[in-house]
Amino acid sequence: MTDNKLPLDGIRVLDFTHNVMGPTTGMLMGDLGAEVIHIEPPVGDATRRLRGFGSGYFAFYSRNKKSLAVNLKADAGKKIVMDLVRSSDVVVENFGPGTMDRLGYGYDALKEITPDIIYCSMKGFLSGPYEKRAAMDEVVQMMSGLAYMTGEPGKPMRAGTSIIDMGGGMFGLIGILTALYNREQTGEGIFIKSSLFETAAYFMGQHMAYGALTDDPVPPMPARVSAWSIYRVFECEDGPIFIGIISEKHWKAFCNAFGRDDWLADERLGTNNDRISEREWLHPAVAEMIAGFPRAEVTARLDKAGVPFSPIARPEDLYDDPQLNDGLGLLETVLPAGVTAKLPRIPLEMGNHDFALRRNPPQIGEDTTDLLNGLGYSDEEIAKFVEDAVVAVEG
Fold it and tell me: What pLDDT, in 10s, does the model give residues 288-317?
């Protein structure tokens, strides 16, 4: 039996966000049960119109949200937003530095209306010399060393998804959840700031610690000496597979799976560190062995042996992944273009709560009328707002 009352039920969030970082926080709060109101211009959030890889941003990060399409610069639009602030718990924004203050929606302005408001501002940098700079995910991947660590030596490469945007959004969520708990204890709201650069630096922490412990420059991941003796991609007869052996149990199971009693008996390969020392001949020997089998055979042997492995998947392969489809991995979602797609749900199991799809990504202004009616505006007033381009309603 699932529990339809979700952990953040009753929390109202005003979501002044775009692109990825801020929308991540809003989506996660919506998934956890909050009422998330995405505030966008009457022409729609510009993220809706992105092309290329950007075409997936709004489609993925906008589920479980409502849409209020309102002109933030119009006096009537500002009154609508301030009316909503009075009944809201959390504000999330990721505009450029100073933008929300210039528009009149900064923390100091909103806490005058709702003193216990929790206000999460997501920026490129935390307080310091860079805090007025604009930044993007890829910029801070370069600044933090992540791109250096990802690419081949001399060829920095960004990670294959907006990992820092999402990470910064998750840290924003951590701050908000902590602030909600603190408000329960003290009755006080608070200003929270999450950032891209410091998030990226945090992700580099293990490499920074490694750098402090060695006299050599930290190498990029493709050139590293792994902590594990077998931890790389090998080529089967018909395609690649990743194999990761991170314990003596795995090593024994791997050798038994392929009938390599000779490796088990070889004193040079007795421990993980021994095998790292022998990698110059061991890796080619393992590669030669794996190359003699079709991938299905290697997969079957490793799966039976309990050795970590994976084929090299593409994003499209996840639509049909048995674990995601037969478990709790995917939500069938109707995107704003009318396309139906299976997209990942929040990766949590928590008691009997069902973190399901409650609302598809909204059309522009889909909830404007209902929200304004809830604030006491009449249909005639709303029609005048539409005529004056103060708001937009779906259709």
Answer: 999 999 999 999 999 999 999 999 999 999
Domain presence at residue 217: no
Looking at residue 3, its pLDDT comes to: 54
Tell me what pLDDT residue 223 has: 83
Supply 315's token pair: 């994003």
User: CA–CA separation, 369 vs 372, rounded Å?
Assistant: 5
Q: Are residues 42 and 180 in the same domain?
A: yes
| Residue of 349, 320, 252 whose CA lies nearest to 2 | 349
Cβ contacts of residue 67 below 8 Å, gap of 6+?
Answer: 37, 38, 40, 362, 363, 364, 365, 366, 367, 368, 394
DSSP-assigned beta bridge partners for residue 90: 13, 118
Q: Are 356 and 345 in contact (CB under 8 A)?
A: yes
**What's the whole-model pTM score?**
0.93
| Residue 26 belongs to some domain of the structure | yes
Give strand pairing partners of 36.
13
Q: For 14-45, how does the pLDDT look when each residue is reduced to its tens digit (9 = 90+)? A: 999 999 999 999 999 999 999 999 999 999 99
In the block, which residue shows the tokens 């708990």? Answer: 181
Is the confidence at residue 2, as pLDDT, over 80? no
Statement to judge: residues 68 and 197 lie in one domain: yes
Residue 327 backbone dihedrals phi, psi, to 5 degrees: -105, -135
Residues 160, 16, single domain; the answer is yes
Q: Provide the residue range defining the domain that includes 346.
A: 12-203+321-392
Q: Which of these, 78, 12, 22, lies nearest to 45 by C-alpha position?
A: 22
Report d(CA 253, CA 249) in Å as an integer: 6
